[in-house]
Amino acid sequence: xxxxxxxxxxxxxxxxxxxxxxxxxxxxxxxxxxxxxxxxxxxxxxxxxxxxxxxxxxxxxxxxxxxxxxxxxxxxxxxxxxxxxxxxxxxxxxxxxxxxxxxxxxxxxxxxxxxxxxxxxxxxxxxxxxxxxxxxxxxxxxxxxxxxxxxxxxxxxxxxxxxxxxxxxxxxxxxxxxxxxxxxxxxxxxxxxxxxxxxxxxxxxxxxxxxxxxxxxxxxxxxxxxxxxxxxxxxxxxxxxxxxxxxxxxxxxxxxxxxxxxxxxxxxxxxxxxxxxxxxxxxxxxxxxxxxxxxxxxxxx
Length: 301
What we know:
This protein is mainly alpha-helical. The chain has 14 helices and two strands; from the N terminus they run αβαβαααααααααααα.
């Protein structure tokens, strides 16, 4: 018994060694920075450090609710994130259905690869591309000028900017998000389509009566799981595209924290806003996982 146990441990040693470096990296870069949360309860001054800065308790949280633009920032975050989730799901479902209807496998795979490719591009690259395309003298405005449409300030007009964020995010993510629904469609029993065709149902009616009901469980499940992302409006994307002229509609919690903490040196206030956002996100993610478990018997972990 002891020999078998020692032999088992010897076999596991290489696995523990392989896991050691990732575990150390996680401790250093994921858990180590959490020590900085102490500044949430301080009037943090870098010169004095964590141990010398004045302790203010919950005063930073009181300041959050006294900020004149906090309501606008929360609304912008909820609006942009919610529209990305809702329109992203709708576009992904439509693309998955259209791809499933394609008869040519070569053409289907080609289209799928093309619309999937943008997912692998970071917003550092895409930000530069869209700035060139959507600028005053960019390609989009040049094409609109051909049809007699005056130039549109896509990146500087407050009313337009949120929709620029939403539509460019759809362009990047739709192909990737469609994979889930396309996989769900392929699990539908093909004899249902054959029976519907014999009864005279066309392709459109088959989609309405068979495809959509067949993937409805996945649609609801994905909607519930996306609940935890309702406060994530896309920091990288916004930082690459926005400017002071669109802060009124494009500034979200993450970008405000970035400006307040790194640009304005309001370290404690920015940390308090980020901490409060993390708490709300944790509650939403936990609730979404609990609902998924109770309603669909879906275990995330």
